[in-house]
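Team,

Forwarding the record for the chain on the shared tracking sheet. I've put the sequence and predicted structure together so nobody has to dig through attachments.
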Amino acid sequence: MPGTELTVTVGGGTVADARAVVQVLEPAFGSPLEDLPATDDVTVHTARFARDPARGRSGSGPSVAGRLSGAVTLTVQGSPLAVATARETLRHAFTAQDRGSVSGDQEQEWQLLLEP
């Protein structure tokens, strides 16, 4: 589905943790639409991607696992294709525990816990 958006919300970590998540997703989705805040006084970080994952760069996933300072909660929301791509990409880079998912007519939401 062209023009698919993926929204990723990272809670419970630092801005460096949020950036680590975004960097892992960039090979599949390109750069986020906005920059993340530069300070750690923000408790929830959100990144939005607009690239269709079917048109993303090819490859088997990130070459280096992401590094986190501690456990973070993550919500990934978008089309089924975008969420499936994000799920696979994140599972290759981090230790991830499923916390549940919700499927709608044209959108899915997936919650998980990422651990260092």
